[in-house]
Amino acid sequence: MSSNAPRKPVRDLRFFLTVPHACSYLEDREATTLFLDPQESPVPGVYDSLSLLGFRRSGRHLYRPHCDGCNACRSVRIPVDKFTPNRTQRKLQQRNQDVTVTLKPARFEPAHYALYAAYVGQRHADGDMYPPSEEQYRTFLTLNESYAQLMEMHCGDALVAVAAFDQLEHGLSAIYTFFATEPAYERRSLGTFAILKLIELAQKKQLPHLYLGYWIEECRKMRYKQTFSPLEVLDGRHWRQLILQ
After folding, report:
1. Domains of the chain
2. What does the alpha-carbon distance between residue 74 and residue 85 come to, in Å, rounded to a whole number?
3. Per-residue pLDDT tens for 144-175?
4. Does residue 159 contact residue 151 with C-beta atoms inside 8 Å?
5. Burial 15-25 (b: 16+ CB within 10 A, else e)
6. The pTM of the whole model exceeds 0.70
7. Are 7 and 49 in contact (CB under 8 A)?
8. With 0-12 CB in 10 A as exposed, 13-18 as middle and 19+ as buried, what is 157?
9. SS3 letters for the chain?
10. Which residues pair with residue 241 across a beta bridge?
11. Each residue's pLDDT tens digit, 87-112
12. What residues are paired with 148 via a beta bridge?
């Protein structure tokens, strides 16, 4: 993403709030989302600035949680130059040495969608992403912008994982990863391995951070994020190292 891109001041942007809806992560709670005016496309400059304030991208929308009386969702990122893989992560790197990685633009490919549909059906059949559809996939994970990319992973001839991510001025932002869930791939922990490869890519590009989206301490499904150390958390407008009690 070019640092010479026009940067519109955040104070000049318009934002909207959704109506309260069921929280996707915590039971018996309602959530509200703050999102950038849909007339404002997620162009470089605007996107860079808002990501530092905890905004994420979904399709063409930039958003962040804005829930009344709840701040459980916290933006987290990995300072990649300080990251050292733990013993389990080193084993995963060894175990997946036969995985090949290819970077592609965030365009629709039937093989990607087939893997996505199988993943959602296996892992998220009880969530709002089910049932998957091509239209849903295109809206969520494809984007005709130079910063939007896909990391495709193959084991032999088999497509085993796809990680959607964006390249920002100050890091990579992990959007979503889906992968093969068959028993033969369980020991590979492909979701964790995808993060390790994104860390490696950020280091190669000399980008300081990998953004992992939101982390909720109470949410079991998000605990994998805290295995990456050190981890920084957005506290108001400042990023600080996360220290777990």
Report:
1. 15-73 (no CATH), 77-104+147-241 (3.40.630.30)
2. 23
3. 999 999 999 999 999 999 999 999 999 999 99
4. no
5. beeeeeeebeb
6. yes
7. yes
8. exposed
9. CCCCCCCCCHHHCCEEECCCEECCCCCCCEECEEEECCCCCCCCCHHHHHHCCCCEEECCEEEEECCCCCCCCEEEEEEHHHCCCCHHHHHHHHHCCCEEEEEEECCCCHHHHHHHHHHHHHHCCCCCCCCCCHHHHHHHHCCCCCCEEEEEEEECCEEEEEEEEEEECCEEEEEEEEECCCHHHHHHCHHHHHHHHHHHHHHHCCCCEEEEEEECCCCHHHHHHHHCCCCEEEECCEEEECCCC
10. 232
11. 999 999 999 999 999 999 999 999 99
12. 166
Beta bridge partners of 22: 30
Q: Looking at this protein, which amino acid is placed at residue 232?
A: E
Backbone angles phi, psi at 35, to 5 degrees: -135, 150
Q: Tokens at residue 79, please?
A: 């300072």
Per-residue confidence (pLDDT) for residue 7, from 0 to 100:
53
